[in-house]
Specification:
The protein is mainly alpha-helical and about 140 residues long. It is about 70% helix and about 0% strand. The protein has six helices and no strands. The radius of gyration is 15 Å and the shape is globular. It starts with 5 loop residues before the first helix and ends in a 7-residue tail after the last helix. The mean pLDDT is about 90.
């Protein structure tokens, strides 16, 4: 890959992984535990994209959508922290509110997911769309 194409290739990789996560969670209602490998690949691609953007001297973090989708299904503190770190860094670069909205929705979702896992409930694991409906928040990640 040429140096100028690398950030875009990494973002495309992150978007691809997020699309897989989105499909399996929203369409197939797969438990997030089965998707942690995809969460890891999105995190790695986002981190590589950030490094590549920095090396190329390009400003701007890229879209929040893959971080949001992967972050909503991240089940471990390390994965969640990596997503929050990326979102916070992205927000500091451009100041778009979409990064803060994504972080807010994810934080609320993680609380519900952790409660769900602790209670060992038989109903489906909470999803980000549940938080959006409940809070009437409809994030735009353009």
């Amino acid at each position: 890959l040429q140096a100028t194409c690398k950030p875009h290739a990494y973002m495309l990789e992150a978007l691809n992984g997020a699309l897989v996560i989105f499909f399996y969670r929203r369409v197939r209602d797969t438990h997030p535990a089965a998707l942690q490998g995809y969460v890891d690949s999105v995190i790695a691609a986002l981190e590589q994209c950030s490094v590549s953007l920095s090396e190329a001297g390009t400003s701007g973090p890229g879209t929040a959508w893959p971080a949001f989708i992967a972050g909503c299904e991240a089940l471990t503190p390390a994965r969640r922290e990596a997503i929050v770190r990326w979102l916070d860094n992205a927000s500091s670069m451009c100041g778009f509110t979409s990064y803060a909205v994504a972080r807010d929705i994810m934080t609320k979702l993680w609380r519900k997911q952790d409660e769900h896992l602790t209670a060992n409930r038989s109903e489906p694991m909470p999803m980000w769309i549940d938080i959006c409906k409940q809070e009437q928040i409809w994030p735009l990640f353009c």
